[in-house]
């Protein structure tokens, strides 16, 4: 099921939490909403899940619109809200059964679905406990289980891994990746590595607008521009620096302070200086001890875009 | 309707799991039992085989108990954020409000059913006016439904259960008492309007066994108004921050 968001705007008073946002998500894509706190990620999700009406604009799931077909859309979406609110006084199994019933799962399929979710989310050992007896990680699993109980075509997860320990984070990510094979998934996060690890596509949102859209690869390339190398060469540092600077593809050389023989070499746009640096060393019989390409990290892209 | 029932079932089981239901039923039975049978102008003192004394007590005890059951219904969900979870399930706002309303109503109904032994006992003591008894129970149910709907509205205003309780009581006291008092101090049209708004006048006429369409209409208007107001408060998120 594909999602089309058209000119979505949501105002809180004078502030625009979401400002004229449009994008499209194809069936089976795993998309990450990335943005600083208060960027409008959650608001966008709340609108897609029919919790709130937008001030302006439309969201369509295939042919269904959030303005007309709320009932169908709600049934097609599984939603894990931020902070994972749950009915704490209910036992897990009861709660999952309630979620299934209310999402319109046929009566005869409910025990099977509940059992499947308990198994899939690793709740088997805890299944007879009340939700308020569970640790945060297990509550998060219950949250995921209730979101998936009716086998929705779209999963919307608002910060699914907050508050989990590193092992649980890895497990949840694995689960999301697995789900992404058959379902459309939107998740939000402000943890970059998480989005990079789980998502096919990243939307960076800042101040209610989409500032970047693409795979982590394309985003990095966009921000990268010129190649940057770190090299370590054994030889007379001054001579080496001058020689490198003379190379046709090199724009700038910075010798690193305190570390003799280390240089940062910036190439001219659309050129690579790796081979020339190597040849230079061979010609002068210098030892090339190290050469590393500095990759722009997603952190830098994010930082640049959301300043 | 099926969705309403699913919500009702959950709320009811939460009443019984959290002991609210037992506490409420025991207190209600204890209070109304004490005053009907043991102290004050009880059945034996009045020497009449009539349930009027019980209805008079229930009229006041329900007034206090109902806000205590309704106060958490929406306020707690607002506070815990579970309202977001509930609304994004395949239900409408009106199904949510009706489901909660029905759960509270059934709890009150259970409490009232528990007082049926009073009727059986009194009917053994003398000639009881069955019409008045049926009218009285009917009146109590209408009264309860009205206060439940006012209570739900109060609960939808806030995240704080105490505030919800107090707001429900303060709205309730107007219908319970104040409109009656104000009505009697005015004459003419003003007086008639306030008298019509008074819950006690309508309740008394029904509990005498006279079911007048005006009385029923009065209670139903309050119920519907309360439900609509709760729905409006619930869907406020759509146009406000």
Written account of the structure:
The complex is a heterodimer of chains A (307) and B (241). Chain A has 307 residues and is of the alpha/beta class. Helices cover 36% and strands 28% of the residues of chain A. Chain A has eleven helices and 14 strands. In chain A, the strands form three sheets. In chain A, strands 6-7-8-3-9-10 form a six-stranded mixed sheet, sandwiched between helices. Chain A has a four-stranded antiparallel sheet with strand order 2-1-4-5, with helices on one face. In chain A, strand 12 and strand 13 form a beta hairpin. The radius of gyration of chain A is 25 Å and the shape is elongated. The two termini of chain A are 34 Å apart. The model of chain A has no long low-confidence stretch (mean pLDDT 86). With 241 residues, chain B is mainly alpha-helical. Chain B is 82% helix and 0% strand. Chain B has helices at residues 2-17, 20-38, 43-46, 52-80, 82-87, 93-113, 116-125, 130-156, 161-185, 188-197, 199-207, 213-234. Chain B is globular, with a radius of gyration of 19 Å. The mean pLDDT of chain B is 91. At the A-B interface, helix 2 and helix 3 of A face helix 1 and helix 5 of B.
Q: What is Rg of chain B?
A: 19 Å
Largest sheet of chain A: 6 strands, mixed
Task: Indicate the mean pLDDT of chain B.
Answer: 91
Helical residues, percent of chain B? over 70%
Number of helices of chain A: 11
Based on helices, strands and strand pairing, what is the structural class of chain B?
Answer: mainly alpha
Q: Helical content of chain A, roughly?
A: 25-40%
As a whole number of angstroms, the C-alpha radius of gyration of chain A is: 25 Å
* CA-CA gap between termini of chain B: 30 Å
Helices and strands of chain A, in order, run as: EEEHEEHEHHHEHEHEEHEHEEHEH
Structural class of chain A: alpha/beta
What's the tally of helices of chain B? 12
> What best-fitting shape of chain A do the alpha-carbon axes yield?
elongated
The oligomerization state is heterodimer
The parts of chain A where pLDDT drops under 50 for at least 5 residues are none
Average residue pLDDT of chain A:
86
């Amino acid at each position: 099921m594909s999602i089309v968001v058209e000119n979505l705007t949501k105002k809180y008073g004078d502030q625009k939490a979401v400002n004229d946002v449009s994008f499209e998500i194809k069936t089976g894509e795993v998309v990450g909403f990335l943005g600083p706190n208060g960027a409008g990620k959650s608001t966008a999700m709340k609108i897609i899940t029919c919790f709130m009406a937008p001030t302006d604009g439309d969201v369509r799931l295939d042919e269904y619109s959030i303005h007309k077909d709320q009932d169908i859309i709600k049934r097609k979406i599984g939603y894990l809200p931020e902070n994972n609110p749950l009915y704490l006084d209910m036992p897990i199994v009861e709660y999952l059964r309630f979620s299934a019933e209310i999402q319109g799962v046929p009566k005869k399929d409910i025990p099977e679905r509940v059992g499947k979710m308990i198994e899939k989310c690793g709740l088997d050992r805890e299944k007879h406990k009340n939700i308020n007896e569970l640790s945060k990680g297990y509550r998060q699993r219950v949250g995921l289980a209730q979101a998936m109980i009716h086998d929705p075509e779209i999963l919307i997860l608002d910060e699914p891994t907050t508050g989990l320990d590193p092992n649980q984070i890895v497990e949840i990510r694995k689960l999301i990746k697995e789900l992404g094979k058959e379902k459309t998934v939107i998740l939000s996060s402000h943890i970059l590595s998480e989005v990079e690890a789980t998502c096919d596509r990243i939307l960076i949102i800042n101040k209610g607008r989409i500032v970047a859209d693409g795979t982590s690869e394309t985003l990095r390339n966009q921000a990268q521009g010129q190649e940057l190398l770190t090299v370590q060469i054994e030889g007379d540092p001054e001579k080496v620096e001058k020689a490198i600077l003379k190379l046709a593809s090199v724009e700038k050389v910075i010798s690193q302070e305190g570390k003799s023989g280390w240089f940062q070499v910036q190439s001219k746009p659309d050129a690579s200086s790796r081979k020339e640096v190597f040849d230079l060393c061979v010609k002068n019989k210098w030892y090339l001890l190290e050469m590393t390409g500095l990759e722009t990290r997603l952190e830098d892209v994010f930082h640049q875009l959301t300043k | 309707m099926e969705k309403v029932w699913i919500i009702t079932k959950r709320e009811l089981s939460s009443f019984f799991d959290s002991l609210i239901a037992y506490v409420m039923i025991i207190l209600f039975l204890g209070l109304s039992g004490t005053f009907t049978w043991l102290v004050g102008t009880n059945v034996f003192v009045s020497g009449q085989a009539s349930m009027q004394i019980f209805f008079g007590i229930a009229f006041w005890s329900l007034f206090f108990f109902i806000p205590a059951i309704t106060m958490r219904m929406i306020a707690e969900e607002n506070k815990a954020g579970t309202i977001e979870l509930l609304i994004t399930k395949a239900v409408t706002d009106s199904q949510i409000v009706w489901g909660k309303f029905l759960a509270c109503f059934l709890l009150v109904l259970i409490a009232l059913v528990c007082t049926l032994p009073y009727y059986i006992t009194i009917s053994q003591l003398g000639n009881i006016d069955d019409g008045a008894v049926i009218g009285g129970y009917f009146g109590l149910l209408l009264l309860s439904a009205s206060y439940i709907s006012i209570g739900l509205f109060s609960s939808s205003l806030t995240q704080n259960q105490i505030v919800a309780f107090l707001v429900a009581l303060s709205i309730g006291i107007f219908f319970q008492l104040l409109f009656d008092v104000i009505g009697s101090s005015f004459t003419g049209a003003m007086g008639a309007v306030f008298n019509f708004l008074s819950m006690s006048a309508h309740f008394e006429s029904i509990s005498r066994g006279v079911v007048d369409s005006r009385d029923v209409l009065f209670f139903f208007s309050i119920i519907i108004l309360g439900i609509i107001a709760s729905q409006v408060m619930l869907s406020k998120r759509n146009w406000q921050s």
